[in-house]
Write the structure tokens for this entry.
Amino acid sequence: MKGIINFYKPKGITSSDAVVACRKILGTRAIGHMGTLDPMGEGVLLLGVGKATRLFDYFLKKDKVYEAEFAFGYETDTLDSEGKIADKTDSVPDIESIKRVLSAFSGKQMQIPPSYSAKSVNGVRSYKMAREGNSVELAACPIEIYSLRLLRQTAENVYLFEIHCSSGTYIRSICRDLAHKLGTLATMTSIKRTRCGHFTCADAVTADKLEKIKENALITAEEALKPLNTVILPDEYYTPLCNGIKIPSETEGDFALYCKKELFGIANSEGGYIKIKSYLRD
């Protein structure tokens, strides 16, 4: 088996738990996820099967869309509802005040990750240091927020937002920073990944559905890479490609490389020659 599964991860399990479940269903250990989703989160979790696990870097860097609820008036140590309340405030913004500051969060920027995150500090995960009561200072990382929209109020002092952002963006940090911009506090109480790259929740399969259709849930690597530019080499390059012989190319950026209707993988041009970054050929 080789391909991508657009899996709908439910709340309450880790991304690793989802991988284990899918391994049991499909009867193969050659499955890995393409970017973690918090245990409290739900939605699109892309899984690579077989050689398609080599597409990890490609899908990890894809833009993502989330729907998340922010509860104003308090902040937890983890910045989500699973943490302990660290501070409270009576200052809670109204919907118009929130809308007025949203535009300030669009564009490229530097973001400080949450202390409880998988970021490493001197080789130690920051969440481990935080749990042990150690002070954690993480460096700001470059991200991009393409849009931040307030969708509606879902409960008293709780609002649902849609966030379209780059890979590496922490929604909990957006919640924190938005609240601080308004002179208050907030905590993320729910999160749903509705899109990763061109894969959406609407097309995702649950564990129950995967159990029924099994390998029919697999999306071929060819289909998964359709948004990528395509380079098709003449048939005479097939043997040189298979033998690792250098082939000239001036194509810019990454592209899906084909020869004799066969997908070789994701490639780019390096020093004027084709270099295959993710080799997918059987």
Remarks:
- The first helix runs from residue 15 to 26.
- The two ends are 11 Å apart (CA to CA).
- The chain has a mean pLDDT of 94.
